[in-house]
Design goal:
Elements lengths: L5 E7 L7 E6 L14 H18 L4 H4 L10 E5 L20 H5 L1 H12 L27 E5 L1 H4 L21 H7 L15 H9 L16 H11 L8 H8 L1 E5 L10 H5 L1 E2 L2 E2 H6 L2 H9 L7 H16 L16 H6 L1
Antiparallel strand pairs: 1-2, 1-3, 4-5, 6-7
Helix pairs in contact: 4-13, 12-13
The structure holds zinc ion (ZN).
The site of zinc ion (ZN) has 7 residues, from loops.
């Protein structure tokens, strides 16, 4: 094969590769296959793609280069005939519980506008249909649609006392921060096993006290249930490097919000209808059905919005995602679905 028709790699020692030399034909589909850890990614991503990107970035001005991702020169004796690379990876979209197919695609923004313009009874501006806005969100779940509940029985060892590290969490072990906070409150008998607690004592442990304990104690406690819930809600999973928080998360259960029943918005916003549906009902529809409902809207004030939304939805259907709905959480999309979105 003439040399220019191939990418030539000689003496590659990137990552775990031991002096690998190979020619990769250009203009053809080439598959790298092998067991995990055999070096497929080291060749494809860390060598070919990285070097191609690096060479391309060198053609930009210093100002631009400072703003582009940095690529290390791969450990290779020689690499020739590279062309510009495009990396299509299967990484997930990520995003948190506030990010849905509707919010990342901007289709939900158009839908909110539609409800603000022609929804009845009138509920307010577009912000009243956003579960990420205080105007629209359900107050109980702050617009997440779910609440975190602590399965307390799993966090407490019933046959242990405070002095025996009753709570199976690092920060609550004898002598540690929270252990000192609670045992120093004077509110608890430190040798009493949890199963021997009276209902009042259990209540105190779970939900805390507004009054200080004994005469020598001046601290009140928040209660572990309240405290855990607050701690877990405040920090996203990626921030939970703390061993106690990670452990705590195993005891947390996600349940649909009892106030909005998972619909994320407050009552007033949910009562507003277009074409006989509330906004969360349209969000729960598969794209194919949603397009059909939109076609029934005849109000001229909505014409441009309906047209734009229909165009977006038709695109989604055409690229093979007719079954998606706007309320689908973006973190649950597969790599392929995320890619197309
Ligand atoms: Zn709610």
């Amino acid at each position: 094969m003439p040399e220019k028709d191939s990418i030539i790699i000689r003496g590659l020692k990137q990552n775990n590769l031991k002096n690998v030399s190979l020619d990769i034909p250009k203009g053809k589909i080439v598959v790298f296959t092998g067991v995990s850890g055999s070096g497929k990614s080291s060749i494809v991503f860390d060598t070919i793609a990285a070097e191609s990107q690096r060479q391309m970035n060198e053609t930009y001005t210093a100002f631009m280069r400072g703003r582009l991702p940095k690529f290390e020169k791969p450990r290779v004796e020689r690499i020739d005939n590279l062309s510009a690379s495009v990396i299509v990876d299967q990484s997930r979209l990520g995003g948190n519980a506030r990010s849905t197919v509707g919010t990342i695609s901007d289709m939900y923004a158009a839908l909110r506008l539609l409800y603000a313009r022609i929804g009845t009874p009138y509920a307010g501006t577009a912000s009243y249909f956003s579960f990420n806005d205080p105007n629209g969100m359900c107050k109980t779940c702050s617009g997440i649609g779910k609440i975190l509940d602590l399965d307390i029985e799993r966090a407490i060892a019933p046959d242990r006392s405070w002095n025996e590290s009753m709570l199976g969490l690092p920060a609550f072990s004898v002598g540690n921060y929270y252990w000192k906070l609670y045992t120093g409150s004077g509110l608890f008998d430190l040798d009493k096993k949890y199963r021997d607690y009276t209902p009042e004592e259990r209540n105190l442990l779970l939900y805390g006290s507004r009054e200080p304990g004994g005469p020598r104690a001046h601290k009140r406690v928040e209660g572990i249930k309240t405290q855990f819930q607050r701690l877990c809600l405040m920090k996203g999973p990626e921030e939970q490097n703390d061993r106690t928080l990670r452990k705590l998360n195993q005891f947390m259960e996600q349940r649909p919000c009892p106030a909005c029943r998972g619909r994320r918005l407050n009552e007033k916003s949910l009562a507003c209808k277009v074409a006989g549906y509330s906004i969360d009902e349209l969000c729960a529809m598969e794209f194919t059905q949603l397009v059909q409902v939109l076609q029934t809207i005849r109000d001229p004030r909505a014409a441009t919005i309906v047209e734009a939304l229909t165009a977006s939805l038709t695109r989604m259907i055409d690229i093979g995602l007719p079954y998606l709905s706007m309320d689908r959480e973006s973190c649950t999309l597969s790599g392929g679905e995320a890619e197309r979105l």
